[in-house]
Amino acid sequence: MAEFDDSELPDPSLMNIIEQESLQWVFVGGKGGVGKTTTSCCLGVQLAKSRKKVLIVSTDPAHNLSDAFCQKIGREPTPIQGFDNLSAMEIDANDDMEQMQQSMEEAAGAADDDNSALSSIMAELTNSIPGIDEAMSFSELMKQVQGLDYDVVVFDTAPTGHTLRLLSFPTIMEKALGKVMELKDRFGGLINQASAMFGGGNGADMQEMLIGRLEETRAVINKVNDAFQDPALTTFVCVCIPEFLSIYETERLVQELSKFGIDSHNIVVNQVLFPEKDAEELGEWLDENISSLPKEAQEICSKMMARKKMQDKYIGQCFDLYGDDFHVILMPLLDHEVRGVEKLKAFSESLVDPIDLEG
């Protein structure tokens, strides 16, 4: 884009992530509908060129990895067709929580009864502490992923609000343990009686098991949190589109990441109209030629120019805010959807091959 002198700006590509071999965790996040999944998949494709084993994990309840790669992807790591070192998986916090509760009930000898003591405690816990289900699910995921020995994991995260909750899991776990101890002190005797009445096994055993599971979860999350706060191991890629709400959300996300001590120095701007061209240049061409165009074409070009001017304004703001410290990558709006391995491979090149903003 002509008005930007990019000679002294950080390289407008994600090559810094590809080249940082120490990275183990790469989060991709932003407002809903800005292209996080496409960016995650493209980044995974590029990382697969230089890493031995790459995993893409979707933590968004509205999973899109299957759609992006045009193949069925499930709860277990699924090899991506056309690669021998790239896999993907989609997780669901609610399903994980139910499975965890079921396994704990079986281990404690509880009956298959919704009124079991453990069900009551878990329901009380989930209602009292929003996010506890996601925290425990995330802990299980991290234990699973760490056991799979991947070089690098790319997280395709849920929209911004959910992502920020993920960063607050250590605090959530502290609250959860406090709540369980409070429930134990207040209702310990009643739980034992109710458990026996409903054939739910030993209530005290289940309480201890739940506390043990929460302690284990807290330990995993605290350990993971330490890794997430190490810029040698973890970075966060912010994704947005050149519109007010998306840029605003990105600023909020950058501030929150900074507060949590998580490294972030890359911003991907998707759906950019002619990123190598400037609205002023295009406007001059349109002014000279619009009279020779049919009426419908004039309307189409005028709408496109209005959109281009709006985008340039917000891209300018993005460079003002982040240009000195962040790698800002402009990704072009295409004539087609980016679905399937071949299209993802082609589009991913734009992440690492900088667009000349002086074009």
Please, could you describe this protein's structure?
This protein has 359 residues and is α/β, with parallel strands linked by helices. Helix content is 55%, strand content 12%. The chain has 13 helices and eight strands. It has helices spanning 15-19, 36-47, 65-69, 93-108, 117-128, 132-147, 160-167, 169-197, 203-228, 244-259, 279-289, 295-322, 341-352; strands at residues 25-30, 54-58, 78-79, 86-90, 152-156, 234-240, 266-272, 327-332. The chain has an eight-stranded mixed sheet with strand order 3-4-2-5-1-6-7-8, with helices on both faces. A hairpin with a 6-residue loop joins β3 (78-79) and β4. The longest helix has 29 residues, at 169-197. It is elongated. The mean pLDDT is 82.
Topology:
Blueprint: H1 15-19, E1 25-30, H2 36-47, E2 54-58, H3 65-69, E3 78-79, E4 86-90, H4 93-108, H5 117-128, H6 132-147, E5 152-156, H7 160-167, H8 169-197, H9 203-228, E6 234-240, H10 244-259, E7 266-272, H11 279-289, H12 295-322, E8 327-332, H13 341-352
Parallel strand pairs: 1-5, 1-6, 2-4, 2-5, 6-7, 7-8
Antiparallel strand pairs: 3-4
Helix pairs in contact: 2-13, 4-6, 5-8, 6-9, 8-9, 11-12
